[in-house]
Design brief:
The protein is of the alpha/beta class. The chain has two domains: 5-65; 66-386, Rossmann fold, CATH 3.40.50.300. It has helices spanning 19-27, 52-60, 82-95, 112-115, 125-129, 165-176, 193-201, 213-234, 239-245, 260-267, 272-284, 297-314, 329-335, 340-343, 348-361, 366-386, and strands spanning 5-9, 12-17, 36-39, 44-47, 69-74, 100-105, 140-142, 148-151, 182-187, 204-209, 288-294, 319-325. Bound molecules: adenosine-5'-triphosphate and magnesium ion. Magnesium ion binds next to α3.
């Protein structure tokens, strides 16, 4: 196969492209055996499935898909920067050429779309849950940034804060099949079982916290509940194990306050099989940690107390990814509806985020990490030039006539700040 292929997909022509690019299109499901390749010698379009060399691409393509990752971003306490960090990781990864889909899974207070300069999302989760659109892929929206797409929760979907178990399962299954290298889920704050179930079912789970004691405490509780929920799932058919580990019933989990090591130590000799399964669950549960809004070096140490506590009390080995400095420009970029990374690519906070992406998500070291950081910064600069400008808003959440509550909303008045977080859910499934 030569390196200058012309291809046709649904009456649209692309090319010339290399065979590697065609392979990528195949891998991402953008080129099927029923699409066409231009045959120079015959001077006509030929179906891909009729060309042996192209047919081979379809056979080998799925093997290359191992990089695809679903990442969930959660926190115990609200307002610690999950949404800003989700958007920043998305912008950074897409600048490095990865296809990224950001998913606003904060059903109670969706605002990721405004971070991405999308004021009136054409489709939202509401369209998916009400079956107006059949699959998740149908509600994926383009963003103003290359390679970066979004699934919007949108204001007014508060009633979906508690999806049913079957809805959650369907959602998780579909998320894993979305055509992207990275799917990043921005979860709601707090320790509801819905959030925990999403957090436990993805490939990589990240906790964001600030260094203040209240946030650290709530992060610790979140990690504890996640671990105990995982153990409950591990032993769901073994009442005796649940009793011995003291994790029977959902309501009691928060009161679990003995070091896990001691609980397991007591039964290790009499029930080695249970101890071994706990060990296995612990080795599978390795959430990552980002410390946000750090103002001074001492706060890094305070934030790291979470890692120590998780290890000593829960035997959970948190993977510390790094910290992000406090930066007033974060709020400013939210107001101007521009992702922070585009607005201030040279700030210490943006540099910390670039470091987290290259060192921790890409696992690059030394020179190659530095090169990735340069690549990221170059691309972010060029994206910043192309990004549209918006009139500055004075609130992070923007009202929309598409809001579920629009007719009853006393704040609407053509764009007054939305208070949807203060409304009670009205939609039941
Ligand atoms: N590193 C930072 N420095 C300064 N301000 C920040 C930083 N990170 C986030 N912020 C600001 O803090 C506020 C909350 O951020 P964000 O909405 O991302 O938090 P969240 O955890 O998603 O909140 P919620 O739990 O309500 O969804 C925003 O105004 C944001 O601009
Ligand atoms: Mg948020």
């Amino acid at each position: 196969m030569n390196g200058n292929l012309m291809v046709r997909v649904k009456e649209k022509q692309y090319g010339p492209i290399s065979s590697t690019e065609l392979r990528t299109m195949v891998r991402k499901g953008k080129f099927s055996p029923n699409d066409y390749v231009w045959n120079d010698s015959q001077e006509e379009w030929v179906k891909a499935q009729d060309i042996e060399a192209v047919r081979k691409l379809f056979q080998t393509a799925p093997l290359e898909n191992t990089e695809r990752k679903v990442i969930a971003i959660a926190s115990g306490k609200g307002g610690v920067g999950k949404t800003v960090i989700s958007a920043s990781l998305g912008v950074g990864l897409s600048a490095l050429g990865k296809e990224v889909i950001l998913v606003d899974a904060d059903f109670g207070g969706a605002n990721l779309h405004t971070c991405m300069g999308i004021l009136e999302p054409q489709y939202t989760f509401l369209d998916y849950y009400t079956m107006n659109r059949e699959t998740l892929e149908d509600i994926v929206l383009d963003s103003p940034i290359d390679n970066l797409k979004l699934i919007s929760g949108a204001c007014g979907t508060l009633g979906m804060a508690n999806p049913k178990f079957s809805q959650k399962q369907r959602l998780i299954g579909e998320l894993k099949n979305l055509p992207a290298d990275y799917v990043i889920m921005d979860l709601a704050a707090g320790s509801s079982f819905h959030v925990i179930d999403f957090f436990l079912s993805v490939d990589e789970s990240i906790i964001v916290t600030t260094p203040e004691p209240m946030a650290i405490q709530e992060s610790f509780d979140f990690i504890k509940l996640c671990l105990l929920r995982k153990l409950q799932q591990t032993f769901k058919n073994d009442q005796e194990a649940l009793r011995l580990l003291n994790i029977e019933g959902d309501g009691n989990l928060i009161y679990f306050n003995q070091p896990l090591e001691d609980v397991v130590g007591k039964i290790k000799n009499s029930h080695p099989d249970i101890a071994q399964k706990v060990e296995q669950a612990l080795s599978e549960f390795r959430p990552r940690l980002i410390l946000n809004m750090v103002m001074e070096p001492d706060e890094i140490r305070e934030g790291m107390s979470l890692k120590t506590a998780a290890f000593e009390l829960l035997s959970v080995d948190l993977d510390y990814m790094g910290y992000v400095d406090y930066d007033d420009n974060m709020r400013q970029s939210a107001k101007s509806l521009r992702p922070f990374l585009l607005n201030n690519p040279n700030s210490p906070a943006a540099r910390s985020i670039a470091k987290i992406i290259t060192l921790k998500l890409f696992n690059q070291k030394h020179i190659s990490a530095m090169m990735k950081k340069w690549q990221l910064r170059r691309k972010v600069y060029s994206q910043a030039q192309q990004y549209p400008t918006f009139e500055e808003k004075n609130n992070d959440i923007i009202c929309s006539v598409k809001c579920f509550y629009w007719d009853e909303c006393e704040f609407q008045n053509g764009g007054m700040p939305c208070r949807v977080r203060n409304l009670q859910p009205t939609m039941k499934f």
